[in-house]
Write a structure and sequence with these properties.
alpha/beta, Rossmann fold, 2 domains, seven-stranded mixed beta sheet, 17 helices, 42% helix, elongated
């Protein structure tokens, strides 16, 4: 953790991936993020993966460094307490519906300069999930060799929406600092997805060509890049992104003469044209398959590293979790045993590195309702007697 956002407090009422990710990123940079859930936990509180005791490893990692307030949101008094917390704090992240008791207009009645960031499914308010939005924008029809669509397991649009929401929160706060005006920023997953497709040239591409991009399996579109198998059966991905890397790859594999023969036969030069290497992959791939297949993975990796070629062997997530470069020796991670699940494992902190500041260790996720009394006392100035009444009547929950 870093203290770049110290002094900033945010109320978060959310679930699943996108909205909690926005709060997590703010918390990792020092903001006080107060997550408000229903008593007993929201709909994602037990989401898999879980331990044998049914404690969600997913939840405790998406909510590190946050505080937790538990309220009975099914009754008016519990909803009013959440509204009061949002107004008292002035910054709000949510994926609750745009209308209803957490609408920006209703909340702003008591706090005109309120900044609300709302993650949505579709811009018109219709629900959507990462996996359905991904289908809608066409990526599963580009993935794999075909003919059937292939879903991927990474919730990319949730994660991009969460990161964009954190950015939008700070942008709206910056505007409020300059003008004194509050605002609501709505971030639909569908717009993040189709906007990203457009930013990468996808919309323009299909309209220009009049057709869809071909499905390439593990090949990289427009570049020389694909998976190859070494002599000892290790599958590895090799991608060439610069002309120097192309020259070094040819030299490392001893393919100069064979590449020159293809260039002569087809009246092309691959030396400075990514597109030509991609276009003529039918002739290039067999050469590289044969050359790479003659090396062990260890020898190939050493040669590619010496030549500055980008490559990586395919491996499992279990392998990655034990990689000292990625996890064990990575300062982003710290050994952590204070997790609500009771399971000790490396915990990730802020992804960014600030060389001028000391990197603080990751913090634990809270238990549901762990900070209810603290927050209601500090933010709403409720007396101990009033808080006791709220707890006794089930309006407020505390961790056990």
């Amino acid at each position: 953790m870093y203290q770049l956002l110290s002094g900033l407090s945010v109320i978060e009422a959310s679930s699943f991936v996108a909205s909690p990710t926005a709060g997590l990123y703010c918390a990792q940079f020092g903001a006080e993020v107060i997550r408000v859930d229903s008593v007993g936990g929201g709909p994602d509180y037990r989401r898999w993966p879980v331990t044998v005791e049914n404690s969600s490893l997913y939840w405790e990692n998406l909510n590190r460094a946050k505080k937790s307030v538990a309220l009975n949101l099914g009754v008016p008094e519990g909803r009013e307490l959440l509204q009061d917390l949002v107004r008292a704090t002035g910054q709000f992240i949510t994926n609750f519906p745009a209308e209803g008791f957490l609408s920006h207009a209703r909340l702003a009645e008591g706090r005109a300069d309120l900044v609300t960031v709302r993650v949505m499914g579709w811009a018109d308010g219709a629900p959507a999930l990462d996996y359905t939005v991904n289908n809608a924008v066409g990526y599963p029809m580009l993935t794999g060799p075909g003919p059937d669509p292939v879903n991927h397991v990474l919730p990319a649009w949730d994660l991009l929406s969460g990161a964009y929401a954190a950015f939008a929160l700070l942008a709206a706060i910056q505007r409020r600092t300059a003008t004194g005006e509050g605002s609501e920023v709505r971030i639909p997953l569908s717009d993040v997805a189709i906007g990203t497709v457009a930013n990468l040239g996808g919309i323009a591409e299909v309209l220009y060509t009049g057709e869809n991009r071909p499905r390439l399996g593990n090949a990289v579109y427009g570049l020389f890049g694909r998976d190859f198998v070494t002599a000892d059966g290790q599958r590895t991905m090799i991608v060439v992104v610069t002309h120097r890397q192309w020259a070094n790859l040819i030299a490392a594999l001893g393919l100069s003469d064979q590449i020159a023969a293809i260039e002569a036969a087809r009246s092309v030069s691959f030396a400075a044209d990514d597109g030509l290497r991609y276009t003529h992959r039918d002739a290039l791939y067999p050469l590289f398959e044969s050359a790479i297949g003659a090396h062990s993975h260890a020898d190939l990796a050493a040669a590619l590293d010496a030549a500055g070629i980008v490559h990586s062997a395919y491996r499992t997530m279990h392998d990655a979790a034990q990689d000292p470069r990625l996890v064990g020796g990575n300062p982003m991670f710290s050994a952590f045993d204070a997790n609500p699940s009771g399971f000790a494992y490396p915990a990730a902190g802020a992804f960014g590195t600030v060389p001028q500041q000391e990197r603080g260790a990751p913090q634990p996720a809270p238990r549901n309702g762990q900070h209810s009394e603290e927050v209601l006392t500090e933010r709403l100035k409720l007396s101990s007697g009033e808080i006791a009444r709220l707890i006794d009547t089930g309006i407020v929950g505390t961790s056990q």
